[in-house]
Specification:
The complex is a heterodimer of chains A (about 120) and B (about 160). Chain A has about 120 residues and is mostly helical. Chain A is built from 5 helices and no strands. The chains are: A mainly alpha (about 120), B mainly alpha (about 160). Chain B: This is LOB domain-containing protein 21.
């Protein structure tokens, strides 16, 4: 067995070929990364997804898949969609707060304007 | 004599796609109706039927519909954006949140300046110098939550999840 098998081939207990599609992104010193992605997507699906992408985008794709897989392991019901939902709620709250504050600013500006006008006629 | 499970009158989308008999105990049947082939096809393409089956088996039954909804959403987004998937959407929302935080800080500082009422002080800032700074510094130059400064590659036009 090649002692320099990538984490994927080690996990799958197979020889790691020179053109292994996983090798550039799953170094042998991080077995948990592949284990997590394999648990959620499966090696075959990940391989197919990577094959359909240009070389220069594969590293980013692997990182995003790993993040989503980890989210799904941590939250099996919502996965990373839970984060999306949370952010949307926070954005809605911030938008409401901003609208309220901007209205208060408008009122305060109006009051200042009225005070200045009444001072002029005194 | 080997028993056999009765044939279901109509296969669910999963069993139709997988070309197998849909049993009354099929784990997919309640969540992938036979008319919903496309949704299952997307979920299967991204996650694989056996992984979905395992995931559903790991969650309580009352949460399985939500699980399927989120898996379908993730699969849809991943197929539209094979590189970034949902991470693109998260980055886009984080950017929006940063813009709002900036606008809110500016608005609060202006309110403080106009009203001079101390109970409107934002926990973030309360100085005219900071207000002037926030007016000059566009949100795009502020550090983003993940430490990056450019999100152009992540922007993704995303609709609402079906269950929000």
């Amino acid at each position: 067995m090649n002692p320099k098998r990538c984490a994927a081939c080690k996990y799958l207990r197979r020889r790691c070929p020179k053109d292994c599609i996983f090798a550039p992104y799953f170094p042998p010193n991080d077995p948990a990364k592949f284990a997590c992605i394999h648990r959620i997507y499966g090696a075959g699906n990940v391989s197919k997804m990577l094959q359909q992408l240009p070389d220069q985008t594969r590293a980013e794709a692997v990182e995003s898949l790993c993040f989503e897989a980890k989210c799904r392991v941590d939250d099996p019901v919502y996965g990373c969609v839970g984060i999306i939902h949370l952010l949307q709620t926070q954005i809605q709250n911030a938008q409401n707060e901003l609208a309220k504050t901007q209205a208060e600013v408008a009122v305060a500006q109006t009051k200042v304007g009225q005070t200045q006008n009444s001072d002029q006629f005194m | 004599m080997r028993g056999h499970e009765p044939r279901s009158s109509s296969s669910c989308a999963a069993c139709k796609l997988l070309k197998r008999r849909c049993t009354p105990t099929c784990i997919f049947a309640p969540y992938f109706r036979s008319s919903d082939l496309i949704t299952f096809a997307k979920v299967h393409k991204v996650f694989g039927a056996s992984n979905v089956s395992k995931l559903l088996g790991e969650v309580p039954e009352e949460q399985r519909q939500e699980t399927v909804n989120s898996l379908a959403y993730e699969a849809e987004v991943r197929l539209k954006d094979p590189v970034y998937g949902c991470i693109g959407a998260i980055a886009s929302l984080q950017k929006k949140m940063l813009e709002l935080q900036h606008d809110l800080a500016v608005a609060r500082t202006r309110l403080l300046a106009h009203s001079g009422v101390s109970n409107h002080v934002s926990p973030l800032d309360n100085s005219p110098e900071l207000a002037a700074f926030l007016d000059l510094v566009p949100y795009s130059d502020l550090m983003l939550l993940d430490g990056s400064t450019s999100l152009d590659a992540y922007l993704y036009d995303l609709g609402q999840p079906p269950f929000v």
